[in-house]
Design a protein that fits this description.
Blueprint lengths: L1 H7 L7 H14 L4 E2 L1 H7 L7 H14 L7 E2 H13 L2 H12 L6 E3 H15 L6 H12 L7 E3 H8 L4 H9 L2
Antiparallel strand pairs: 1-2, 3-4
Protein name: Guanylyl cyclase-activating protein 3 isoform X2
GO cellular component, one term: photoreceptor outer segment
InterPro entries: EF-hand-dom_pair, EF_Hand_1_Ca_BS, EF_hand_dom, Recoverin
Length: about 180
């Protein structure tokens, strides 16, 4: 019943059977029914990170902790799985925006964008462009009104339909 409603809206939710499998795995790993930040990092193999990368992983965890109690419970976990595996581009974009908008003011400024690129670079070791160069390049592409100040979710949504940030990064990596 829940699946048919979400499928009618153009979303494919995790099925009841898959949810049960995920639930059993979750409860086996986290018998308290709650996943801590440390357990989240262990699950993803992200221990011993530098401070920037660590801060980024903390932000990711906090966006999944929807009720802000310091833990990820099973409902938050399955919502995250559903977003990552089955989420539509618009849903993922909203989640990324929430992640990047560190101060929660409804827009992403250059400093927030730079912080995220520094963290991602620290996580994956990519060094073809400095975080500053990459931030300038991306910000220039998505700054709709060319004011150099901040990006809103609406502006980002409109622009991402026209550009692919990964392609920019790949193209500059080949230069």
């Amino acid at each position: 019943m829940g699946n048919s409603e979400s499928e009618a809206r153009g979303q494919t939710a995790v099925s009841a059977k898959e949810t049960y499998v995920w639930y059993r795995k979750f409860m086996r790993e986290y018998p308290s029914g709650l996943q801590t930040l440390h357990e989240f990092k262990t699950l993803l193999g992200l221990q011993g990170l530098n401070p920037k990368a660590n801060q980024h992983v903390d932000q990711v965890y906090n966006t999944f902790d929807m009720n802000k109690d310091g833990f990820i419970d099973f409902l938050e976990f399955i919502a995250a799985i559903n977003l990552v595996i089955r989420g539509k581009m618009e849903q993922k974009l909203k989640w990324y925006f929430k992640l990047y908008d560190a101060d929660g003011n409804g827009s992403i400024d250059k400093k927030e964008l730079l912080n995220i690129f520094m963290a991602v670079q620290a996580l994956n070791g990519q060094q073809t462009l400095s975080p500053e160069e990459f931030t300038d390049l991306v910000f220039h592409k998505i700054d709709i009104n060319n004011d150099g100040k901040a990006i809103t979710l609406l502006g980002l949504t409109l622009k991402t339909r026209r550009i692919d940030v990964r392609r920019i990064y790949q193209w500059h990596g080949k230069r």
